[in-house]
Amino acid sequence: LKDHVASLMARLESREIQGVPGKTFLDAFAYIAIPHALNFLFLSKSVLAKALGIDETRVRRRILGPLGEEAAAAASGQFILTRHRAIAEAAMEIAESRFEIDREDILADLVRAAIVANSEAALVPHLADWRYLSTRMFEQGNQSLGVKLAATALSADPGNSFLAVKLAQLYREAGQAEQSVRVFRDSYNRAKGNRAFYTEWATCEGAINNRA
User: Fold this and answer.
1) Where does residue 77 rank: exposed (0-12), middle (13-18), buried (19+ CB within 10 A)?
2) Residues 95, 101: contact at Cβ < 8 Å?
3) What whole-number distance in Å separates Cα of residue 136 and Cα of residue 129?
4) CA 37 vs CA 5, 45, 82: distances in Å
5) How far apart are CA 72 and CA 32, in angstroms?
6) pLDDT tens-digit profile of 179-209?
7) Over the chain, what HEC string results?
8) N or C: which end of the chain has fewer CB within 10 A?
């Protein structure tokens, strides 16, 4: 299976996506396979389109059609998956070991794409799952990735005080309350009555003995 997937990925790497300079079908396949391998089954056309820099109306013809011909991916209802999770898992391993594609960067790109697409009025199913994918990764034991995804979400929507709370909370739970406090002090003018913001801010200030 790994040999088959590696051969498939080599072919995809050699094919550039029409109208998207610098992006190949391997990039598209990585965006599809890595979340599938991690059992995140909510990648939509709107998110994939934003991640690749292509209009959503062209995703099926320019991305899914060619990948379908390679038996690499398919749309399952409103979501996009590889043909089988075993293929996705093999692809994720090979992407990192042979093609220098970092799963963390892929997930960060998709989180950013989902939030930006939503801000541009695209329909993004499971938006909350993308916004708070950081929590899932953090709770699964990958604290650094959880913090990275929370920071990515906040940078994509800097006016969202709830995303600021999430980033600060993860910093605190990772033992970096000083970083948490910095998030709050940089974001307080956007809290707009968010009580959770002030509660978590107080907790973090207390953690560094700033009782005042």
Assistant:
1) exposed
2) yes
3) 9
4) 13, 18, 9
5) 9
6) 999 999 999 888 888 999 999 999 999 999 9
7) CHHHHHHHHHHHHCCECCCCCCCEHHHHHHHHHHHHHCCCCCCEHHHHHHHHCCCHHHHHHHHHHHHHHCCCEEEECCEEEECCHHHHHHHHHHHHHHCCCCHHHHHHHHHHHHHHHHHCCCCCCCHHHHHCHHHHHHHCCCHHHHHHHHHHHHHHCCCCHHHHHHHHHHHHHCCCHHHHHHHHHHHHHHCCCCHHHHHHHHHHHHHCCCCC
8) C
pTM over 0.90: yes
Q: What are phi and psi of 210, to 5 degrees?
A: -95, 75
Whole-number pLDDT of residue 153: 98
Cβ count near 86 (within 10 Å) = 12
Chain center to CA of 169: 19
Q: pLDDT value at position 70?
A: 83
For 50-107, how does the pLDDT look when each residue is reduced to its tens digit (9 = 90+)? 999 999 999 999 999 999 888 778 887 789 999 999 999 999 999 999 999 999 999 9
